[in-house]
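check these tokens.
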Amino acid sequence: MALNPKLRIGLLGSLLIFGVLCLVRGIYLHLRTSEPQVIIKEVPVKTEAESKPEVQQPVRKEIRKEVQVPATRDWVDTGIGVEAGGSVTISASGTVVWDPFKSPIRPDGGEMASLFPSSNDFPMPSARAGSLIMKIGSDMSAVGSDASIRASSSGSIKFMVNDRYYALNDNSGNFTVRVIVR
């Protein structure tokens, strides 16, 4: 018995669609019931030291400034802040009269302040009278005409002439101070 050609194409098309559906169902059932495959890929592992991020040191910007320190004022603020551990370099020139009965002196000062009566009235009795002194935070240093100091605390840099606070009004002159902070 011979089939009509149109019917034969229809049957072949149906068989083809049925076959594709069976194939798809078989693949689906296989994937659903089979064990999942584990793919192992070798990845290099860094040691603890290698995996820590590299810590970069902060870049300290250099600041340069020149300030006038009148002998009549206490703690002249330079407006320069310094962090603990920062480097401060000072050079100073000029003359002041810190006592009307004394000759003008340079930033290194005269006699030790501790030799004068009421020496504890000086901001720094351990420094020379009339010398240039510096304060960062609450820490004071005798700087004179040249000094390089590592700041032990953070704060604004301030200068004054080492004289009794109550005796500043009879002083005269000023120091020119050049400051470099790194």
